């Protein structure tokens, strides 16, 4: 038996630079994350989970992974957002997968605004909004469409939700490094962002008009949803890649319940609804429209 194998699973191994994630703790975390977040962690994710959660142990001043698991058992919700944020990768950008926003600007928003401007409401949900780039991109496109079609008085809002407290904090602040605007045109940069000064010269803040259009709230997609809908469109991009087939099926069915006939669901470039739900038709690149009953 090797020396490492004879050591306590929870005590740090010097070569690993911190506490070691033992079998019992990893199995608990796998079950906990699947139940609470719908994320399926394979055995090959052990080192990734250990490496990312070591930082949480340090932040919480916990000696080992057993203490961390005990914290989750005592109060699952207290640490859930931080745990989910640590083990998932929040990759996002302004105007990421720009064809989705082109469809909104060129076809969908003009139609919806025309239908609703004499009395109605327009709602878009950014589910899994991460640090806010997606909902603020939606807000730019929406604000421009409202102005173009003389509908600034329309009741139009964007709901942005995520499980990660850190991501939501960034989204609420609406402050981004200038380099994050790579996908934003010069014209839009000038119109929708305020440049920092002095120590903040390399940062921008989103225009207050965009903040007016976006409501940012914490939400676990696997738990109860307080909103009733309906939404004209739901963006859930690069979220379901972490879920197994049964979880995806349940989530897509719930989305279908919040969309009217003809409502739209946008997925990420590596995601598909094929074989998972028969309530939608694929009408474009990862763009789905809810079928008529």
Tags for this model:
globular, Rossmann fold, 16% strand, 11 helices, 3-stranded antiparallel beta sheet, 7-stranded mixed beta sheet, 2 domains, 293 residues, alpha/beta, Chemotaxis Receptor Methyltransferase Cher, domain 1, disordered N terminus
Q: Please give the CATH class of the largest domain.
A: Alpha Beta
How many DSSP H or I helices? 11
- Shape category: globular
The share of residues in helices is 40-55%
Main sheet: strand order: 6-2-1-7-8-10-9
- Give the SSE order as H and E letters: HHHHHHEHEHEHEEHEEHEEE
Mean pLDDT level: 90
Q: Number of folding domains?
A: 2
Give the distance, in angstroms, between the N- and C-terminal Cα atoms.
63 Å
CATH homologous superfamily of the largest domain, by name?
Vaccinia Virus protein VP39
Second rung of CATH, namely the architecture of the largest domain = 3-Layer(aba) Sandwich
Count of individual beta strands: 10
Major sheet details: 7 strands, mixed
Q: Provide the structure class.
A: alpha/beta
Q: Assess the beta-strand content as a share of residues.
A: 15-25%
Please explain how this structure is put together.
The chain is an alpha/beta fold. The protein has two domains: 85 residues, Chemotaxis Receptor Methyltransferase Cher, domain 1 (Orthogonal Bundle), CATH 1.10.155.10; 193 residues, Vaccinia Virus protein VP39 (Rossmann fold, 3-Layer(aba) Sandwich). 43% of the residues lie in helices and 16% in strands. The chain is built from eleven helices and ten strands. The protein has a seven-stranded mixed beta sheet with strand order 6-2-1-7-8-10-9. Helix 11 links the parallel strand 7 and strand 8. Helix 3 packs across helix 5 and helix 4 crosses helix 5. The N terminus is likely disordered. It holds the Pfam family CheR_N. One of its GO terms (biological process) is methylation. Keywords: Methyltransferase, S-adenosyl-L-methionine, Transferase. It is an enzyme of class 2 (transferase).
